[in-house]
Amino acid sequence: MLDFLRRLFGGTDLKPIIEKGAVIVDVRTVKEFQGGSAEGAINIPLGDFGKNIDKMKKMKKPIITCCASGMRSGAAKKQLESYRIEAYNGGSWQSVNKQVKR
Questions:
Q1: Cβ-contact 93, 41 below 8 angstroms
Q2: Which helix (H) or strand (E) element contains residue 2?
Q3: d(CA 38, CA 33)
Q4: In this structure, what CATH number is given to the domain that contains residue 68?
Q5: Where residue 2 falls among pLDDT bands split at 50, 70, 90?
Q6: What Å distances lie between residue 68 and 55, 56, 82, CA to CA?
Q7: How many domains does the chain have?
């Protein structure tokens, strides 16, 4: 059960993925993002994902998604994977930020 929740809401050790040059994409709204975000994250709200898929494909890097709780970032991860983009659900932006700052 714990493993299921970890996969659903994030919990992966992101350090090696970050070291591979991963891009952190915060999928919260612009207003939420302006209230605080993981260090180095870019903001692509989940509602704008469809029109930004080509931009993310061109990055040619793994993408770590994050949001407030891990729900939206989980949906974003699945959407990216459907386009064959290597993606990881980082969960909350605070959790991702802790791993970026290690």
A1: yes
A2: helix 2-9
A3: 9
A4: 3.40.250.10
A5: very low
A6: 23, 21, 23
A7: 1
Q: Decide: 80 and 89 in contact? Cβ < 8 Å.
A: no
Residue pLDDT, tens place only, 33-86? 999 999 999 999 999 999 999 999 999 999 999 999 999 999 999 999 999 999
Q: What are phi and psi of 23, to 5 degrees?
A: -100, 130
pTM of the entire predicted model: 0.87
Q: How far apart are CA 88 and CA 96, in angstroms?
A: 11
Domain extent for 90:
2-100
**Which residues, 6 or more positions from 51, have their beta carbon under 8 angstroms from its beta carbon?**
none
